[in-house]
Amino acid sequence: MIEVLFVCLGNICRSPTAHGVFRDRVARAGLSDRIRVDSAGTGDWHIGRAPDSRSHAAAQLRDYDLSDLRARQVQAVDFDRFHYVLAMDRTNLANLQAMRPPHFRGELRLFLDYARDSAVGAEALSSAGLEVPDPYYGESDGFEQVLDLVESASDGLLLAIQRHHKLVPA
Ligand code: 4NP
Predict the structure, then answer these.
(1) Ligand 1 — pocket residues by CB below 6 A?
(2) Which residue among 19, 49, 134, 145 is best mutated to probe the pocket of ligand 1, counting the most ligand atoms within 8 A of its Cβ?
(3) CA of residue 2 to ligand 1 center, whole Å
(4) Cα 125 vs. chain centroid, distance in angstroms?
(5) pLDDT tens-digit profile of 106-139?
(6) pTM to 2 decimals?
(7) How many CB atoms within 10 Å of residue 109?
(8) Nearest CA to ligand 1 atom 9
(9) Is 61 left (phi over 0), alpha (psi -120 to 50) or beta?
């Protein structure tokens, strides 16, 4: 099993969106029995909460279901389980790098690294600077932007995993 963890700050906006979108891509590729998806936050404020209603609504408009997801905080033991630990922004990445045990051999990087090779417009990526901007205190179009970026990076990540692990879709 290949295990993928998406990490943001609160685990109620960006990383649950990535969780819901990427598991949908995995299911459509017939790879749900090979790739497992989870998400977590570096902060502890929202532990146990469902995704933010604005993230939930934006995702639902594109047919992604986030309703079963509940926030949890990332832990050092996550590095023992997950092969891909993917941060939404550079602050999340720095916090994860500080937690990373020396024996971790997986990929710890920005999620949007995987959007480079996908169909996303270069403009959208460069304006975001390879970060998924935190939409929590912003306007509602921030949630649309999160989805656009997450969809592009999900396509790139699935391809990268399929190539690296030589997975043939069912
Ligand atoms: P997320 O968004 O990291 O994408 O889940 C946030 C959610 C909550 C807070 C900040 C960002 N907060 O400060 O409570």
Answers:
(1) 8-14, 41, 45, 134, 136
(2) 134
(3) 27
(4) 16
(5) 999 999 999 976 665 566 666 667 999 999 998 8
(6) 0.95
(7) 16
(8) 10
(9) alpha
